[in-house]
Design a protein that fits this description.
Helices cover 53% and strands 14% of the residues. The chain has four helices and three strands, in the order H-E-H-H-E-E-H. Strands 1-3-2 form a three-stranded antiparallel beta sheet.
Length: 113
């Protein structure tokens, strides 16, 4: 799949969803998103780390130092209960948004049988 630009406001949601499964360091988060999207979203460090810090400031993720797979010192991030709540809210909003756009692109989706 071709590389795509993220829509504004989606990076935080993607990061929270990725971290929902297990704590990860930043590089692993970026790699996981890239893999899950068949390389469509390639998150650059210049966007990822400010997002992680923003999520940490909001209390949606917390971080602690640990060793990465290659034994390097790295910060591991995990979602907090407040982050899980924010993710549920954002995901529900996103699903409504996608559904509405889909109905415009394919009006038959809005028809009642």
């Amino acid at each position: 799949m071709a590389k795509m630009d993220l829509m504004k406001g989606t990076l935080d949601m993607l990061v929270l969803e990725t971290l929902r499964h297990r704590p990860m360091h930043g590089y692993a988060v970026a790699r996981s998103i890239k893999k899950a999207t068949d390389d469509a979203f390639q998150i650059e460090e210049g966007a990822l780390y400010p997002a992680l810090h923003r999520l940490e400031q909001r209390g949606w993720v917390e971080a602690e130092w640990g060793a990465s797979e290659n034994n390097r010192r790295a910060r591991f991030y995990q979602v907090t209960p407040a982050g899980r709540k924010a993710l549920r809210t954002q995901a529900a909003t996103w699903r409504r948004y996608v559904g509405a756009v889909a109905k415009v692109l394919d009006p038959s989706l809005g028809e009642i049988s």
